[in-house]
């Protein structure tokens, strides 16, 4: 349910953000072509192009085209994630870190197998990232899945605490949270890519306007055209940035709910005591910033686990 809500948020924010941005940008291109190109071409007496520019384009069609382009770009990026070699994608998540796949015959691998069996999922590959940070991560794109645990966490935690962390990440795989995160990443990259395309279109239009200076008496029309160019630039930038901010705030809210759910599932799988103990070691010292934290406050996570421990039915 939460994963579906998260994906709906991705598509809604992209459709609105890209749709408005490119709808406005394409409308500006049409306006500049109608009033700028005709001025130049007719002024130079090359040919008459008024007949082909009588009817303005439908703005709603432009909005749909922009939104559809965003959705297609998300699926394209997700497809690239899916076909990329797994270790290559994991290296992108942990740059500059050596990743070592856990041997299937090791004790940790056998514990991992048992956890996945209890959660009724096929055990994905388990990797150890050779870093001193305390971190763990679940990755899924297409048919490729993996869970990464840092060496620092392995060395710092007791075995029961490690099993709770692994159960937590396995729960993310079980409920498709990791797949939703990959699509969300594709969506945020799509919005950033949209900003670059917008900047390219507007810079191209601005450079095209420079040719008007060679046409006699064109100073007035340059001033007339520069105003909508600046206006559309401001509006489209505001639209994309607002879309990205709202997207991040809402997505962070959903992400925090996912974390709490996985906390509870993992605690029910391996025990509440190691869950609470592990969270104490992972205690976050920085307070949430404008609701953008993807993880709930650690004190709240511990408090809820203690509540579930006393009242398992809740």
Shape annotation: elongated
Quick one: how many beta strands? 4
- Residue stretches low in confidence (pLDDT < 50, at least 5 long) are 35-56, 285-291
Strand adjacency order, main sheet: 1-2-4-3
Biggest sheet details: 4 strands, mixed
Number of domains: 2
Overall pLDDT score: 73
SSE topology string: HHHEHEEEHHHHHH
Give me the number of helical elements: 10
User: How far from one another are the termini?
Assistant: 19 Å
- C-alpha Rg (nearest Å): 26 Å
Quote the beta fraction: 5-15%
How would you sum up this structure, described in words?
The protein is α+β, with helices and mostly antiparallel strands and 314 residues long. It has 2 domains: 2-84 and 180-250; 86-178, 2-Layer Sandwich (Zincin-like), CATH 3.30.2010. The protein is 69% helix and 6% strand. It contains 10 helices and 4 strands, in the order H-H-H-E-H-E-E-E-H-H-H-H-H-H. It has a 4-stranded mixed β-sheet with strand order 1-2-4-3, with helices on both faces. The radius of gyration is 26 Å and the shape is elongated. It starts with a helix and ends with a helix. Mean pLDDT is 73; it is low at 35-56 and 285-291. The chain crosses the membrane at residues 7-33, 62-81, 221-250. Residues 119-307 form the Peptidase M48 domain. Belongs to the peptidase M48 family.
Defining traits:
single chain; 314 residues; alpha+beta; Zincin-like; 2 domains; 10 helices; 69% helix; Peptidase M48 domain-containing protein; metalloprotease
Q: What's this entry about, in short?
A:
Its cofactor is Zn(2+). The protein has 314 residues and is an alpha+beta fold.
